[in-house]
């Protein structure tokens, strides 16, 4: 199972992977989702997968080929931005953990037909956030969600306290300004402060 807090990493420099992975692990964050939004995503996964005690998954997966490339690189789970039936069926055939993205009841019902009960809720913020999660806790009491989109260091705890939230995902864990400036000392301090604030869930 993934951790309660899953940093979303969209990295365009392979040399950043090991630095960031080790900083995350040092501060208690043992899981990350590498998004396939850059050309070097596969190489990033390869680097992170080699860090002992660190779990890496692949996000923004939109094709079977992309998924297989990520798995071969060391990804341990797959996250899709929406319902992608071919990817879901191939993942299940291979017994791979997959968390499809949903936002509507109809999409949740499709996942139910595949017996998938842990789903990414995206984009959570603009579709109601906690109100949406509360609404789904009734008819979908047996589902757990990983909300992403609109989550930050100030509201993370509110989402983590929801009974039907198994984890949260967000790029707020590794702030872009630290990446752009390669300010690793400041990132380390920020992660440490974040760990203290969210210690109950790390």
Could you please describe the fold and organization of this structure?
Strands 3-2-1-9 form a four-stranded parallel beta sheet. It is built from nine helices and nine strands. By secondary structure, the chain is α/β, with parallel strands linked by helices. Strand 6 (101-102), helix 5 (105-113) and strand 7 form a beta-alpha-beta unit.
Provide a compact summary of the structure.
This protein has 202 residues and is an alpha/beta fold. Helices cover 40% and strands 17% of the residues.
List keywords for this structure.
single chain; 202 residues; alpha/beta; 3-stranded parallel β-sheet; 9 helices
Topology of helices and strands:
Layout: E1 5-9, H1 15-26, E2 31-35, H2 41-49, E3 55-59, H3 64-73, E4 77-79, H4 85-93, E5 97-99, E6 101-102, H5 105-113, E7 118-121, H6 130-136, E8 144-147, H7 156-160, E9 168-170, H8 176-181, H9 184-197
Parallel strand pairs: 1-2, 1-9, 2-3, 4-5, 6-7, 7-8
Helix pairs in contact: 1-2, 1-9
| End-to-end gap | 14 Å
Tally of strands: 9
Q: Gyration radius, to the nearest Å?
A: 16 Å
Across the major sheet, the strand order is 3-2-1-9
How many helix segments? Answer: 9
Strand content: 15-25%
- Percent of residues in helices: 40-55%
Low-confidence stretches: none
Structural class: alpha/beta
* Average of pLDDT: 97
Order of helices and strands: EHEHEHEHEEHEHEHEHH
**Which overall shape is indicated by the principal axes computed on the Cα atoms?**
globular
What does the main sheet amount to? 4 strands, parallel
